[in-house]
Amino acid sequence: METAGECVVVLDGANVACQKDGKVQISKLAAAIEYFRSLKISADCYSVKCLAFAPNFWLNVKPTSNRSTPSESEAIEDNDRALLCNLVQKDYVILTPSQAHDDFYVIDYAVKHNGFIVTNDLFRDHVANKRTFRGRRLTSKWVRLHCIDFTFVGREFMPNPRAIERVLDFNSKTMELLPLATSSAHLSQSGVQTSLLNNEDNSNVADDKDGEDEMLIDHAAAKSSKNIDLSEVTYYRVPRELLPILHGEGGETMDKFQRYTGTYIVLPSYAVSSYSSITAQSNVLTLSIYGAEASRQQAVAHLDAFLVQMQFQSQNGLLQQQHYLTSLNQTQIHPRQQQFAASNETQDDNMMDVDLC
């Protein structure tokens, strides 16, 4: 079980160790494990927990020498078997039952701990069969967000640098907010959007129209996001109570703001806000702002100004309320000042209806 602030990275052992000719090379799996175990997330001092799942027969079925064609289990050399045994003893590699599909263990563990999967497999069969893990249906968008593809240069492990940025930018609170499964009924009431790390065609949107398992899509915003750079992201924290204002009526406020700034913004839905209040989550939510650097800077500047305005209005409203209460107390002693108190009673009921643009 991972500790607080721990980033979990799960290796698809069979996919990492078997390259090109299909021969199992445990040294490559060991190199990938060492890469992530030595990775430091310095920004928030998060530790990385890395482990791999591999089929049991790799270690527990010995090769035979009297066969002209080696079987899959016979691809393990003696040196590799000793190395694998060492990794298993350290709990860096977890062996799965021989009759089981190791993909199930890999995906299930990553979903359970909201972690990343190191694999070049897109899990298309599991997505097509709508398999569920921990009560959530696996979607192609979840795979894009959580999977890290890789290659090897000789024995050197080289993951996709764009995917590694997501690990380096890991924030446990942010990752807890984004994955909450929400039914598609909430989609019409809000502008909730989910991070897209690659451009998607309409078939991908249709495949996940139910909006299950962590990856809700605002279909209108998804179409507009095709012209926006989704490989760069800025995280922005806002008070939870401002979420309804950011969404606006039917999501129109956020939609206008995105068009104005040329960005694509992921923000929690009302369902996330309600769930978080029940589970005593932080009063601060994190927005993910995608787009070119200039566009993201413009969006941040507007959000900064918006928060200052909200803070000023909140303080001004509090002062008016205090003044009104003071006037009421004075009216009880000096009835002639009742008219003065009434004149200070009026407040702008719509003061919080602020257009971000």
Automatic annotation (TrEMBL):
InterPro entries: KH_dom_type_1_sf, RNase_Zc3h12_NYN. Pfam families: RNase_Zc3h12a. The keyword RNA-binding applies. One of its GO terms (molecular function) is ribonuclease P activity. Gene3D superfamilies: 3.40.50.11980. Keywords: RNA-binding. One of its GO terms (biological process) is tRNA 5'-leader removal. Residues 8-160 form the RNase NYN domain. PANTHER family: MITOCHONDRIAL RIBONUCLEASE P CATALYTIC SUBUNIT, PTHR13547. This is Uncharacterized conserved protein. It comes from Plasmopara halstedii (Downy mildew of sunflower).
